[in-house]
Design goal:
Strand 8, helix 6 (about 155-170) and strand 9 (about 180) form a beta-alpha-beta unit. This protein folds into 2 domains: about 1-105 and about 255-280, 3-Layer(aba) Sandwich (Rossmann fold); about 120-245, Rossmann fold (3-Layer(aba) Sandwich), CATH 3.40.50. It is built from 10 helices and 12 strands. The protein has about 280 residues and is an alpha/beta fold. It has helices at about 15-25, 45-55, 80-85, 105-115, 135-145, 155-170, 185-190, 235-245, 255-270, 275-280; strands at about 1-10, 30-35, 60-65, 80, 90-95, 100-105, 125-130, 150-155, 180, 195-200, 225-230, 250. The strands form 2 sheets. The chain has a 6-stranded mixed sheet, sandwiched between helices. The protein is about 35% helix and about 20% strand.
Length: about 280
């Protein structure tokens, strides 16, 4: 049996078991996908150690990692894929010859879904990413890698600067994101030239469904497509703001499915039917 799972906290709203169960069934693979809720460190340190040790021993064949452990697990890996090393965050763990390999499918998952939903109309190749945590790292990396100019807006400017510096060190130094405060004054000057707004923070996620990362004092950029990584609820406060302003917008369900499928392809070595995953949540 292929034993898979998800490490993070909290996990009560996770759709991952349903997505993977549907794909495994369609692929004809005998497998299971379990949830491993691990509180933030230091409280969850011993639990995380136990789960990763089980994987080293072959009891678990593959793990996904979500908030708040995408960077926590870096210190437990034996090696990394080039993508995970460049991003500085792990969302997928592979097991090979007793060693744990940290991978990241968030970046490729985000780009694949952005290409699916982004309208084929001219727009500035300038993006504003809201948030500077583990999810933001993958988004900023993928946008910089595909030629976008990126500003990272965070409530803690030092966190945005640290993210910009770390990605600059791992990529072409000329492709550097610009850190800014997530405040109306800082964002206002970017509005005329912004073609993409991405929420990579937890603002608007269940249970804080009324929250929006975009300040209500200023309008969204009129040329922008709005992409919210949050998918619970399906229509977040930010997406409602965007549609009320006449803008196209999408939630993160497509990214969730794509990164999950890419992870399962790594573990199984087989193509994964995305349609089976979409059908189980519709």
């Amino acid at each position: 049996m292929l034993s898979l799972g998800l490490v993070g906290y909290p996990l009560s709203y996770s759709l991952s078991p349903r997505l993977h169960a549907a794909a495994l069934h369609t692929m004809g693979i005998n497998g299971e996908y379990q949830l491993y809720p691990v509180p933030p460190l230091p409280q969850g340190a011993s639990q995380l150690e136990i789960i990763l040790q089980r994987m080293r021993q072959g009891e678990i064949n593959g793990l996904n990692v979500t908030i708040p452990h995408k960077q926590t697990v870096l210190f437990h890996m034996d090696s990394f894929t080039e993508t995970a090393e460049a991003i500085g965050a792990v969302n997928t763990i592979l097991h090979e010859e007793g060693g744990l390999i940290g991978d990241n499918t968030d970046a490729a998952g985000f780009l694949a879904d952005l290409r699916r939903v982004l309208p084929d109309t001219p727009r500035p190749r300038t993006a504003v990413v809201l948030g500077a945590g583990g999810a933001a790292r993958a988004v900023v990396y993928s946008l910089l890698s595909t030629g976008w100019e990126v500003s990272i807006a965070a409530r803690r400017l030092d966190q945005a600067k640290a993210l910009a510096d770390s990605l600059c060190a791992s990529q072409d130094p000329l492709k550097r994101a610009t850190p800014i405060d997530l405040e109306p004054d800082s964002l206002h000057s970017l509005i005329p030239e912004t073609g993409l707004v991405v929420n990579a923070s937890s603002a608007g996620m269940v249970p804080d469904v009324e929250g929006s990362p975009w300040p209500c004092e200023i309008p969204l950029p009129e040329q922008a497509f709005v992409y919210d990584l949050v998918y619970k609820p399906l229509e977040t406060a930010l997406i409602s703001q965007a549609r009320a302003a006449g803008l196209h917008a999408a939630n993160g369900m497509g990214m969730l499915i794509e990164q999950a499928a890419l992870s399962l392809e790594r573990w199984s070595g087989q193509p994964v039917p995305r349609q089976a995953m979409w059908q189980v949540i519709q």
